[in-house]
Structures are given as C-alpha cells and as structure tokens.
Design a protein that fits this description.
Layout lengths: L3 E5 L3 H18 L5 E4 L8 H4 L2 H9 L7 E7 L6 H15 L6 E7 L4 H6 L9 H6 L3 H13 L9 H9 L2 H7 L1 H14 L1
Parallel strand pairs: 1-2, 1-3, 3-4
C-alpha cells in the first residue's frame, strides 16, 4: 500500500524544486517510503493565502482524500508570529482529519526555503551561516548571489533543481545547519508515523 504525502508550499513554481527532494530525504531518513507530491492546485502565490485555514480545508484537505500526510511548509520571512498561525492550523486540521490515520503538519522555513539549498553547499569564506540563517530576505541577499557564483541564473528557476540536487548529497550538513526546521520536521514525522 502506498503512503501519499502532499507538500503545500506558498508558491509551487520555484519552491517545488527545493521542497520535494527535501521532504523525500526527510522521509527516507525516517525509513518511510512514500510517494511525495507538491501541491500545484491551488497555487497559493503567497504565505498569507497558504496560511488561510478555510482555504486549506476546502481547497486542499477536501480535494485530496488520497493523501495520508499533508506538510504545509512556507517561509517564516522574519515574522515571529507566523509560528502561532502554523501551530493553530496544524492543531485544527489534525483534529478534523478523517480517517484519523491522516496527518497534517505545518512547519516554517527559517527564513525562506532557499536556505535549504545554501545549507548543503560550500559557501564563500566571507559568508556567515548565522547571518544567512537570520536574514529574513535570504533569497535576495544570499541565494541570488550564490546563483550568480554558480552560474545557474539562466537555468529554469535559477537552477533550483540542480542546486538542490547537489545540496541533498550533503544531507548531514543540511540537518546540522537547519535544526529548527529540517530537524524539527524530521522529529515530528518520525513521532507521528
């Protein structure tokens, strides 16, 4: 029997190339074989839309009855209050799941999902990982500079698929650099499955 996982990003167009391999690797680490898809319909096109409880309920949960595990994974963007929204959504939707074997998890990338790509790569010596991790606009401050250094700016989605594929090869580095989100998701998935 197949175990189906649906990753819910704020905008799949670029994020799917980062989140799909990330979640597949997290599940592999937890020794859980699963079929992972990224939600494309609806395409929320923003964090506020992705954190709307009623939209998640009607446009995702009800629409995808074959999914066993939903993972909402959006950017924190430096907004500390977002954790409360994500927690509230997770508790509400988890409580409403039928059958009760289905699960809903909500996690925030600190600060943007592009940090997962950077976490798996050797970075310029003058870049501080602490600065990267704290930057609410890491996509524009560091990721775009990294893309320029790697020469992937002309590739689709600035080479996110290629760069994330390379990053995943350094899985231990990603886990050690991203304990607040990747580590938390690893722990939570292993506890719930």
């Amino acid at each position: 029997m197949s175990y189906n996982v649906l990753v819910i990003p704020e905008d799949f167009t670029k994020d799917e190339h980062i989140l799909k391999p990330l979640v597949e690797r997290i599940l592999d680490d937890g020794e859980r074989k699963a079929h992972v898809l990224v939600c494309r319909d609806p395409n929320f096109q923003g964090v506020d839309a992705a954190l709307d409880l009623n939209t998640l309920r009607s446009m995702v949960i009800d629409r995808y009855p074959m999914v066993d595990l939903f993972i909402l994974l959006v950017d924190r963007d430096g907004k500390a209050g977002r954790e409360h929204s994500a927690d509230r959504i997770e508790k509400t939707l988890s409580g409403e799941m039928k059958p009760k074997t289905r699960r809903f998890l909500a996690e925030l990338a600190r600060q943007e999902v592009e940090v997962f790509v950077l976490a798996g790569h050797d970075l310029p010596a003058d870049w501080s990982w602490k600065d990267i991790r704290m930057d609410a606009d890491v996509k524009n401050t560091f990721f775009k500079r990294f893309v320029a250094l790697r020469g992937t700016s002309k590739q689709p989605h600035e080479g996110r698929k290629k760069l994330m594929g390379e990053a995943i090869a350094n899985w231990q580095r990603i886990k050690s650099r991203c304990p607040e989100d990747v580590g938390a998701l690893l722990t939570r998935i292993s506890q719930r499955l």
